[in-house]
Amino acid sequence: MNNNILPSATLDAPVTLTLESVGGDKVWKFLASARCSASTSTAANTVFQLDNKHLVQNGLLIRKHVSLQGQVSLSLLAVAGIPHFGLSDVKELLLGVCADADETQPVFRPARVQNHYRAEALRIAAEMAALSEPQVLRMLNTMLGLPKDRAVCLHDKTVFHPLLPPPSAPPQTNPGNAA
User: Residues near 94 by Cβ (< 8 Å), separated by ≥ 6?
Assistant: First the structure.
């Protein structure tokens, strides 16, 4: 869950973030000083895109506008693409990220995201329980036919864990117990 990058859902119109909507002065200062990239300049201001690891992996896209007088304004352009993810979840995320601003720590996930992951895991487990024996054997045969170098995902984690010996393998006998 901590390594997964949530897909972003672009908002129809950018939402201007205020001191109250982000959770207070401490969070506002954190966002105003957060690491940025992709700046563009106009006659009136400079626009930056926040690239904090915790914000990006939670699907948030926040732009920081700095006027020539140094005033900072923030706008929210995209949020996590999970159902019912709203400003209260953005606020919870920002408060959690601000409380532990160290980007080397595991990614903070709001309660709605954690519950979404749990629900998806349960849904997948329920689907797996409904498989028939031929379907499971077909999946095992497919797994055994994969090249060994394809047994890990892009995070170098094992994709398939052996649950049973391969169906074509003869049962192992213990030479000491042979009759």
Answer: 22, 23, 27, 30, 31
pLDDT tens-place string over residues 110-142 = 888 888 888 888 888 888 777 788 887 887 777
The pTM (predicted TM-score) of the whole model is: 0.65
Tokens at residue 118, please?
């749990």
How far is the CA of 58 from the CAs of 38, 41, 137, 159, 176, in angstroms?
A: 19, 27, 37, 23, 57
Structure-block tokens of residue 167: 């169906």
Q: Identify the three-state secondary structure at position 131.
A: coil
- Residue 173: pLDDT band with limits 50, 70, 90: low
User: Could you tell me if residue 70 is left (phi over 0), alpha (psi between -120 and 50 degrees) or otherwise beta?
Assistant: left
